[in-house]
Write a structure and sequence with these properties.
Binding site for 3-methyl-2-oxobutanoate: 45-46, 84, 112
Radius of gyration: 17 Å
Bound molecules: 3-methyl-2-oxobutanoic acid, sodium ion
Catalytic activity: (6R)-5,10-methylene-5,6,7,8-tetrahydrofolate + 3-methyl-2-oxobutanoate + H2O = 2-dehydropantoate + (6S)-5,6,7,8-tetrahydrofolate
Number of strands: 8
Helix content: 40-55%
CATH class: Alpha Beta
Oligomer: single chain
Strand order of the largest sheet: 1-2-3-4-5-6-7-8
CATH architecture: Alpha-Beta Barrel
GO molecular function, one term: methyltransferase activity
CATH superfamily: Phosphoenolpyruvate-binding domains
Protein name: 3-methyl-2-oxobutanoate hydroxymethyltransferase
Number of domains: 1
Enzyme class: transferase
Length: 264
């Protein structure tokens, strides 16, 4: 596999090839996922939940994200490395610039931030200075306390329309990738068709340009519960590398997510 860049992912969308991505937090898993042919690895702030056992992602710090990014980087040869900006590390542009620098210097090739059009100036500032940005809409877990729980987003028509507008504005600001989390599958499809940058869905239906799963969910080892939108690929294969290869091929063939994994 050749080295994967933001340009490769854009080309995949243009050619109608599905993008498979997964989270990782250390060198060993990152190396195995890279060798299995995964297109991007996210060092997610989900590590607060799956590694640290916290109730949500809010306690995660930029130092912890930088540490795990360094670990992942050492295991990766070809895969694109995306690192999450944790809670309140991009509340304003200056904070975002200095904190994103830490993740890029730790080995990331792109940073991810949760939020809509309020992020536009921050995104432009980062991209102009050489830091690619992945945006994230829908159920943005850092806002769990505003949502009043981990709930499917964009269910009413106004909210759905707003999300499509936000996606267009994020693209215009310079975002090169967009994660869509826990939204109805027809909204996932509408957003993916409304913008030219690739969309990566998790609980966003099968019509997004790619999929992402938290590795613990994909392997059935989450310490909390198994989300509706995930599938245990290890159960079908009994081998971690084969599980990830199966995930990639099921996404490529359009078999994952299935009807049982989507929100209507
Ligand atoms: O933190 C994370 O793992 C994420 C993905 C679920 C998209 O943000
Ligand atoms: Na995250």
């Amino acid at each position: 596999m050749a080295k994967i860049t933001t340009a490769s992912l854009l080309k995949m969308k243009q050619q109608g090839e599905k993008i498979s991505t997964i989270t990782a937090y250390d060198a060993s898993f990152a190396k195995l996922f890279d060798q299995a042919g995964i297109h991007a690895i996210l060092i997610g702030d989900s590590l607060g939940m799956v590694l640290q056992g916290q109730d949500d992602t809010l306690p995660v710090t930029i130092e912890e994200m930088a540490y795990h990014t360094q670990c992942v980087k050492r295991g990766v040869t070809d895969t694109l490395i995306i690192a999450d900006m944790p809670f309140m590390t991009y509340a304003n542009k200056d904070q975002a610039l200095s904190n994103a620098t830490k993740l890029m210097q730790a080995g990331a090739s792109m940073v991810k931030m949760e939020g809509g059009a309020w992020l536009n100036d921050t995104i432009s500032a980062l991209v102009e200075r050489g830091i690619p940005v992945c945006a994230h809409l829908g159920l943005t877990p850092q806002s769990v306390n505003v949502f009043g729980g981990f709930k499917v987003q964009g269910r009413d028509a106004d909210k759905a329309k707003q999300m499509i507008e936000d996606a267009k504005l994020l693209e215009a600001a310079g975002a090169q990738l967009l994660v869509l989390e826990c939204i109805p599958s027809d909204l996932g499809k509408a957003i993916s068709e409304a913008i030219t940058i690739p969309t990566i869905g998790i609980g966003a239906g099968k019509d997004t340009d790619g999929q992402i799963l938290v590795m613990h969910d994909a392997l059935g080892i989450s310490c909390s519960y198994m989300p509706k939108f995930s599938r245990n690929f290890l159960k079908d294969t009994g081998d971690i590398k084969k599980a990830v290869e199966l995930y990639i091929s099921e996404v490529a063939l359009g078999n994952f997510p299935g009807e049982e994994h989507i929100f209507k």
